[in-house]
Amino acid sequence: MPLDTTPDWRVRRRETILAAAAELFARRPYHDVQVDDVAKQAGVGKATLYRYFPSKEELYLHAFDEALARLEARLHAPPPEGAAPEAVLACKVRALLTTFTEQLPALKVLGGDHSHLAEQMRTVLRRRTSRIAAALREVLEAGRAAGRFRTLDMEMTPLLIIGMARGAVMMAGDAEPERLEAVILDLILKGALAGPAGDDAGSFGL
Fold first, then answer.
1. Which alpha helices (DSSP H) does the chain contain, by range?
2. Which of 108, 128, 161, 204 has the most other CB atoms within 10 Å of its CB?
3. What is the pLDDT of residues 150-201, one digit of tens each?
4. What is the pTM (predicted TM-score) of this model?
């Protein structure tokens, strides 16, 4: 495999442009952010920006992907030694909520009018979701092995946690993050039943 010969200054400049774009896109809707705005925020010329990102759409996609990559890295980071599975899961849910809150304008684009952009973003999200789900699955399996969590569907449960966090931010984004985290964890760890659910909680006799 050839070594990466990209000069450090080019890497740093690309990161600066992405950081500027991420900051602007987090504050304003996609169509309200112009390439000139990003170039000014990054302290580079417009022509320089286009050498790294040929279009605003590509810049937006890269900024979105970078945000999910950072989330993925946080979720896969080793937990503190001796941390209870519940505490580890809480940290991961908090990371999901933080990232989805920061990316709320991007999440709105997914269901908006930018059809081509939205489809490309869905592709990015699907690719990253499988890795994010793997990190959640790891802590759920560790909790089950430690006797702290009951037997769960390890394929669907991580995806539902991701969907729950994303939906909470989309539908109740004005709520305090701590409240969203507490409600999600309460549902995950305790469910809605008044008594102990046990491993047969999936059979409700409806």
1. 8-27, 35-42, 46-52, 56-76, 85-102, 104-110, 115-145, 156-172, 177-190
2. 161
3. 888 999 999 999 999 999 998 886 788 888 889 998 988 887 777 655 444 4
4. 0.82
